[in-house]
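re: the backbone from monday

yeah here it is again, tokenized this time
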């Protein structure tokens, strides 16, 4: 063989070897779970774990550091509870699977602190009370959704001693997971506050104001999810129906097929909707400012005499137009358009210009009207409403108005009353959608199991709306979940604060209201059957026309009072 070829092969071999060595060295680096990161809060006065992965047999060293942080702020060592001892160095050796953990002694509240794990430095650590906040949409509901009631208070409050971390929404049907996708701790300030869970925010605020202890909020919640999604397969062993249901989705290829067919179905439905909607295809579209709607039907926006054929609702697109007069002194100004809540989806135009869209019924419609769009005299608001098959509607007793900022007091122009109406494209019901996150076990595996090594002061649980139709089994399911989580966290007496469902539905919906009342009884039954569980009254804070009531402040304060009372009772 030619010597140049030999030399080239030798060089290639060396390069490959170096790459393999580099990969091996990269893999050897200690890896920490998402929870163990800058800004974290560790539970006070209980042993806490630091854990992660490394190469098998690797030594891992954990130290709390004295000195100054990267921001030049002096850092002290944590104070240890009576009888405890904080060593200078804690070490562990990664086992054959690469896992390691170190248990730190109970520490008193305080911070911020620094901690190193081999070559990783974790900054801005607080010691305080850590709470697992879980459930469905009323737990998930962010601060941004309650600003109608609490805007001034939210805008004036910052507190670096309150931290919040959102567990990413993922599901897994195969096995309990070791970690979550990447996420991060956020301090309570104006940059981050709108993403905080509203209930958790007001709970933490009330707790801190009463005892001055830092608060960590781990938000692991997902709107619409039933309780069985949050229970492990082991925890559901007395409920074979749910285990058998879960087994259907263990095949990833099957799940991918479902999503593919679902996507194709929606694509066809939406294409048919678009092609059949004359409002989008006439020479003058129906949202145009100068469109002549004089031949349209005049309806009351809250009546039930539109959007149906006299007996059954009509799915598809529905167009509504309203003219409003704007005074000369507000011409050209930036404004806010409020359109309450709409069933189901909408696209909205002002004077022919698109200003916003929402894809489902629950969020409040708050759309910005840019400066220069409004004019003196007649202005037009057009709503293209999409119904998936139920009765299209505007939810009553919500704000429907144009708000024009003004010195002193804002000008408000009502949009309630009569609108012009015309059916766009009548459609059959929209295709059904598979929400895998609603299926048993999958959220436990992906959003609870990865938290098992973290130490919590307690659990705040706000869930149940999605189990009302099966309320007869809820107390048993919730009891199973409580036992399951206590086993997962190795805390037989882990406190649970169960939030009662808020009042909901019109007084005329007798059967619906009866079902919700019975569900609250099931929640109370679960709280009574289990030790170290507290039911938090919430029925009086509901809104008949909104499954997501705004008053999360009073509710948060009630949870804080109950939690602080239980803490005081332990002393």
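seq for it, each position gets an aa:
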């Amino acid at each position: 063989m030619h010597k140049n070829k030999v030399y080239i092969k030798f060089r290639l071999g060396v390069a490959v070897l170096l790459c393999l060595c580099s990969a091996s060295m990269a893999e050897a680096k200690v890896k920490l779970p998402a929870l163990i990161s800058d800004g974290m809060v560790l539970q006070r006065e209980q042993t806490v774990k630091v854990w992660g992965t490394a190469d098998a047999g690797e030594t891992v060293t954990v130290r709390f550091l004295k000195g100054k942080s990267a921001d030049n702020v002096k850092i002290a060592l944590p104070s240890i509870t009576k009888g405890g001892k904080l060593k200078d160095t804690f070490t562990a050796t990664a086992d054959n699977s690469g896992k390691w953990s170190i248990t730190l002694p109970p520490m008193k509240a305080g911070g911020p602190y620094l901690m190193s794990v081999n070559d990783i430095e974790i900054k801005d650590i607080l010691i305080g009370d850590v709470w697992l906040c879980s459930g469905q949409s009323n737990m998930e509901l962010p601060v941004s959704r309650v600003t109608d009631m609490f805007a001034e208070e939210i805008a004036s409050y910052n507190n670096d001693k309150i931290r919040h971390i959102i567990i990413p929404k993922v599901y897994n049907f195969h096995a309990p997971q070791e970690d979550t996708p990447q996420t991060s701790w956020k301090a309570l300030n104006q940059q981050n506050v709108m993403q905080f869970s509203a209930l958790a925010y007001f709970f933490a605020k009330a707790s801190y104001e009463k005892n001055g202890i830092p608060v960590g909020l781990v938000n692991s919640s997902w709107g619409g999810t039933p309780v069985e999604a949050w229970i492990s397969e082991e925890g559901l062993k007395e409920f074979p129906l749910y285990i058998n249901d879960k087994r259907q989705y263990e095949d990833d290829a099957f799940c991918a097929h479902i999503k593919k067919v679902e996507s194709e179905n929606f694509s066809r439905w939406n294409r048919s909707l678009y092609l059949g909607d004359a409002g989008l295809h006439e020479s003058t579209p129906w949202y145009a400012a100068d469109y002549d709607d004089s031949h349209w039907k005049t309806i009351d926006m809250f009546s039930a005499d539109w959007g149906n054929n006299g007996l059954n609702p009509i799915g598809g697109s529905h167009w509504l137009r309203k003219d409003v007069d704007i005074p000369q002194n507000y011409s050209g100004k930036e404004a806010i358009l409020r359109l309450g809540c709409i069933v189901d989806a909408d696209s909205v135009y002002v004077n022919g210009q698109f200003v916003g869209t929402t894809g489902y019924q629950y969020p409040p419609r708050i759309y910005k009207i840019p400066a220069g769009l409004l004019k003196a005299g007649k202005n037009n608001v057009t709503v293209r409403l999409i119904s998936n098959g139920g009765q299209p509607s505007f939810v009553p007793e919500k704000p429907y108005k144009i708000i024009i900022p003004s010195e002193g007091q804002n000008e408000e122009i009502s949009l309630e009353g009569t609108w012009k109406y015309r059916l766009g494209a009548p459609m059959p019901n929209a295709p059904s959608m598979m929400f895998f996150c609603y299926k048993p076990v999958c959220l436990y595996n992906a959003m609870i199991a990865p938290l098992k090594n973290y130490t919590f002061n307690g659990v705040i649980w706000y869930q149940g709306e999605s189990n009302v139709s099966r309320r007869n089994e809820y107390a048993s399911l919730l009891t199973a979940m409580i036992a399951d989580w206590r086993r997962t966290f190795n805390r037989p007496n882990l406190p649970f604060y169960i939030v009662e469902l808020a009042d909901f539905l019109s007084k005329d919906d007798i059967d619906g209201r009866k079902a919700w009342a019975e569900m609250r009884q099931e929640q109370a039954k679960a709280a009574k059957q289990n030790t170290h569980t507290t039911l938090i009254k919430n029925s009086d804070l509901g809104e008949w026309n909104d499954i997501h009531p705004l008053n999360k402040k009073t509710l948060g304060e009630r949870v804080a009072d109950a939690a602080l009372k239980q803490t005081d009772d332990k002393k």
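The first strand starts at residue 41 and ends at 43. The radius of gyration is 28 Å.
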